[in-house]
Amino acid sequence: MRKIFMILAVMAAPVQAQQVASAEGGVLRALDKVSGLSRDVEMQRGETSRVGSLNVTLNECRYPEGNPAGDAYAELDIVETGEENRLFAGWMIASAPALSALEHPRYDIWVIRCSTS
Question: Keywords in UniProt for this one (predicted)?
Fold first, then answer.
């Protein structure tokens, strides 16, 4: 019983906020699961790039302040070309791509890093 209380006490501890910076762009990796080919896609903030039959828009890319090589996370919108429904709208995290992933039968897309220059 005491171990459970200690675990709950640790879990309830306040989390320190981390300062972040916004980047001018980011690098995504796209995998075509049918052909097995992958490619890196460099994008600027606000830019839309075509990946196969998907249109990917990079809205924002953030990284730990003072550490551009640190854990990046990006806000993306992904839609199928010619469709209205969004396949993905939200944040992807470079260190945990499965946490918030694109669900598509052919393509996988994930964040690699932010671009600061």
Answer: Signal
Q: In sequence order, which ranges of 2-112 are alpha helices (DSSP H)?
A: 2-11
Q: Are 27 and 115 in contact (CB under 8 A)?
A: yes
Q: What pLDDT tens digit does each residue of the chain (117 aa) get?
A: 445 444 444 455 555 667 888 999 999 999 999 999 999 999 999 999 999 999 999 999 999 988 777 789 999 999 998 888 899 999 999 988 888 899 999 999 999 999 987
Q: Decide: pTM greater than 0.85.
A: no
**Residue in the block written with tokens 């694109």:** 102
- Three-state DSSP state, 117: coil
